[in-house]
Design goal:
Distance between the termini: 57 Å
Structural class: mainly alpha
Helix content: 40-55%
Order of helices and strands: HHHHHHHHHHHHHEHE
Number of helices: 14
Number of strands: 2
Strand order of the largest sheet: 1-2
Radius of gyration: 27 Å
Oligomer: single chain
Strand content: under 5%
Length: about 325
């Protein structure tokens, strides 16, 4: 009889595979191929369940964890979008000869000045750049140009100026009084609220020349930022907190009253609410429409849960909601 270690190794071999991927971001998903003749025709759970429902007693296969390891036998750092965003110049400049120290220093200065401008949100100083270049030189002497840039970036990312958003009161401000924010602080507050991230170059330029604080410019920037795909963060973070969508994973309905509830439905209900909230923002609707709107976003799984017919497929589409009787909730998870 094989021991436990041999059995575990055998399972690992049968449940793993190796694939060749180019450098960069990839979406990876894993699932089981359903074969009715093999698994039998009597399915106690009519919907495919997910990895969170590991205690299901139907005997159907489940995924508990998915682990991605690598890279194996890599031939170099690759040409990823993030790497190209950092290395905006090349000290070799197409020459076959080794670059000079001055050429490397000039390129490193260009790289770090751009990174510091974004990381410090337009509040970088000459002293900040000089400090980063000191770290660059230290890393370069030990392991070369790219290692020097890496060392400087590590210093940049550990700086309090990057880690904290500090808004200093003007020296003339009275205790407890209101005062306008300077351009850089306003740009940061705006970008972290709408995008949950750093301000972009356009916002930083307006903050630097002092025009961002003008009401008409500020309004135009808010409209632009809400139209940007990064504004999805407002849905994920603001709506996630306000509507408690982040807590959905901790709710498990009564299995007697809702025998078909699974994590796929839980995630779909979250997506439905996110799409609905996003439509309120993007279409500049009244906040009252959160309770009175006559539409929602459904896919087949959500529609079946609500008892709405003629909705097929996994993709979400805008659909009229249905009120079956007075007091019933419309087809929105926010109810």
């Amino acid at each position: 009889m094989r021991n436990i270690t041999e059995a575990a190794d055998d399972i690992a071999r049968r449940s793993s595979t190796t694939v060749t991927l180019a450098a960069g971001e990839h979406d990876i998903s894993v699932g089981f191929v359903y074969d009715g003749a093999t698994l039998g025709s009597a399915r106690l759970q009519p919907f495919l369940r997910s990895s969170q429902d590991i205690l299901d007693a139907t005997g159907h296969p489940h995924l508990q964890t998915l682990t991605v390891t690598g890279p194996f036998n890599s031939t170099g750092p690759g040409r990823t979008a993030s790497r190209e965003r950092v290395f905006v110049c090349d000290p070799r400049s197409g020459s076959a000869e080794a670059p000079t120290a001055s050429a490397e220093h000039a390129c490193a200065e260009k790289i770090l000045s751009l990174l510091a401008r974004r990381a410090y949100r337009g509040m970088e100083t000459g002293q900040d750049l000089a400090g980063l270049l000191d770290f660059y030189e230290s890393g370069r002497k030990a392991r070369g140009f790219e290692a020097g840039v890496e060392t400087a970036i590590e210093r940049l990312l550990s700086s309090p100026k990057f880690l904290f958003r500090i808004e200093r009161e003007p020296a003339s401000a009275m205790p407890g009084s209101a005062y306008p924010l300077p351009g850089p602080e306003l740009a940061s507050r705006l970008s972290f609220f709408l995008w949950s991230g750093l301000p972009d170059d356009e916002l930083l330029d307006l903050a630097k020349d002092g025009t961002l604080t003008k009401p008409e410019v500020l309004k135009a920037q808010v409209v632009r930022m809400l139209a940007d795909p990064k504004a999805r963060a407002l849905v994920d973070n603001f709506a996630g907190q306000w509507l408690y969508l982040r807590n959905l994973d901790g709710f498990i309905p009564n299995s007697v009253g809702f025998p078909n509830f699974d994590d796929n439905l839980r995630q779909a209900l979250r997506t439905e609410t996110q799409l609905f909230f996003e439509s309120i923002v993007q279409e500049d609707r009244s906040v009252v429409d959160l309770m009175t709107a006559n539409y929602s976003f459904l896919n087949e799984r959500v529609a079946k849960h609500y008892g709405i017919p003629n909705v097929y497929g996994a993709h979400f589409r805008r659909s009229p909601s249905r009120m079956s009787s007075a007091g019933d909730c419309s087809a929105r998870a926010v109810c």
